[in-house]
Fold these 3 entries.
Entry 1:
Amino acid sequence: MFDVGAFASGLLTGLREGVEAALIVAIICSYLARTGNTRQFGKIWVGVGAAVAASVALGAAIYLTVGSLEEPYEQIFEGLTLLVAAGVVTWMLFWMRRQASSVKGDLQRAVDRTLTDGTAWGLAVLAFTAVIREGLETALFLVGQATAAAGTSGEDGAMAVLAGALIGLVVAAALGYGFYRGSQALNLPTFFRWTGVLLIFVAAGLLSRAVHEFIEIGWITLATSPAFDVGAVLPHDQGIGLFLGAILGYTSSPEWITFITWVTYIVVVLALYLRPVAPGPAEALGSAQPLPARVRPTEPRPEPTSATPAAGD
């Protein structure tokens, strides 16, 4: 049976992480186009392709490693993978929250430095380093989700996570093209804020699942008795319970330590994530500085159009 919850979980991750990567690429390409350096686009795609390939290879290697281990090493590796995935997505959420106001200016200044002081192929390296962080985070997070889904729904659950992630990434790529073309259809601050909230609940589920794995192998022995059992009302292995299990890590009979971990993570991380962001000097640098004269193309320029930046832009 198709696991809708696992699919939705993968879709959310692919969409959120894909939009971040697509936004980075769109900013770089848009800035190159504004400065007459569209001939450098091919190098950007080389860097992006290498980052995507490395991320897919890492994710596949980790997931296949989990499946090839025997007990109790499988549970140990699975628990550590879930723990790392939860930690990575938590770091990513707060990094994006803190850097959102300055990421555009930072990328544009990096393009300036590469074109001025480095080789043109430095753009491929710039694109690779900008995208690989998002790619590795996505790979680790999806491996954690697929591992958790496989534990409840078998390989069908893992495939549902992958299918959802692929669709999310395709949608993210389309949105990235819209960013490049100047579309304002998506309110980015609102998008990142609310998908971030949803990912906090997903990460809490991964963390609680990791705790459960450590209980099974005897690494955790404190407060391991069931906190409650609502299996007669909402079982976690079918229907809505299965959906909530894939999205939020729901189980109808959690151990006390698992339940406390889940609640504590959500309360603490959600409170920190939703607090106002203090303005800093980086916000004043959001727009790029004028391109140095020696970076400007020497080839004939087309007649000015509406896409050409005005003087002093």
Entry 2:
Amino acid sequence: MDYYPTLLELAGLELPSSVKSSMDGVSLLPLLKGEKEIDREAIFWHYPHYHTQGAKPYSAVRKGDWKLIRQFENDFYELYNLKSDVSENNNVLAEYPEKVEELKTLLYQWYSEVDAQFAVDNPNYDSNKHDQILK
């Protein structure tokens, strides 16, 4: 989300006003130049579909040292403290319910702010045909 505004600034171009209102990315150029830190409360990922290489639908939010991941298949959540667990091996969801609720609230607010799109069930999906293709 930050590549587009960063590349525009590097090229000396303005972000089109028609895009600016819906863009949640910022230019990283000041950060790359060592001039200042990025003023951002949290960063978000949203991948609401399957990918042929195995990716499954999920969203995530990172705020400070904390990252909350929401898996859409079963509405399962994972919470990681990236300061102490950079590899995301230890899901600490049960130990920090307040942090889970804080990050869930941020994530759901962000969904609304950006009008996030979600996958819908395909009424024509036939699991038997799918299973035959995989054989």
Entry 3:
Amino acid sequence: MGKAKILIQLDSDAQPSVFDSVAAVDSGIEIAHVLRHGGVQVSQVRDLVYGAMFTRGVDELRNTAIFIGGSDVAVGEAILAQVERSFFGPLRVSVMLDSNGANTTAAAAVLCAARHRPLADAEALVLAATGPVGSRVVRLLALAGARVKVGSRSLARAEAVCQSVAARAPDARLAAVETASPAELSTALETPQILIAAGAPGVELVSAAARAKSRSLVVAIDLSAVPPAGLAGIEATDKRTLRDQVHCYGAIGVGGVKMKIHKAAIRQLFEASDQILDAEAIYRIGQGIGV
């Protein structure tokens, strides 16, 4: 009889996320224990990982996995890097990074867009592209072959995202665009088939009138669930909703896809002991389950 499945939740926030814990329990596999650690600092990670690795035989490590969460994505990335540095030889467990839901949300948004327009050679505009979700959306779109306009009120920050993505994907076709003024935004909206807004909650990025002027749009996705919408005129519950002949998604409409990906990724953690589930791997999981 195999060892019971254990998920170790490393959360950078003082209180570990209840959302992430419930999602793990509801993932469709029998997880015997979710061990929740809050306020995790990078300096503490090695000993936590050693506790996971040294208590079971190599053949049983597939039944232990690590989930990294918390509201600070940069800290989550640092925790993941330290987790990986702690592994050696065959002593390792699978690990998933989804701080602030950034990876699963980005994967869900791009997969929703792909329902309506093949991504290869499509033109996409990502607004608020310098945030944790937006930058991952840019990455996934670029890796899928899209031509991506990286939109931000700060051209320098947009250029920094382009450089970061290009380091991972040398063939990426990226263009930094400034969207601080209505004129700049109008120009950016002239030609894309895909529009994804990943802005802060309650901040309108595009008015309904401005969006209606973009005759090339096939799909528009707003990832903000807090009113006012990032893309005015799109409801949070929209899912494949036609508005002005554009397929529209709101945050809740994308959220159902996100949850399917999240739970499938948790299940996959326990299939082997050597998996690192970051944005790209999580996106492939979504492709594999056909969301």
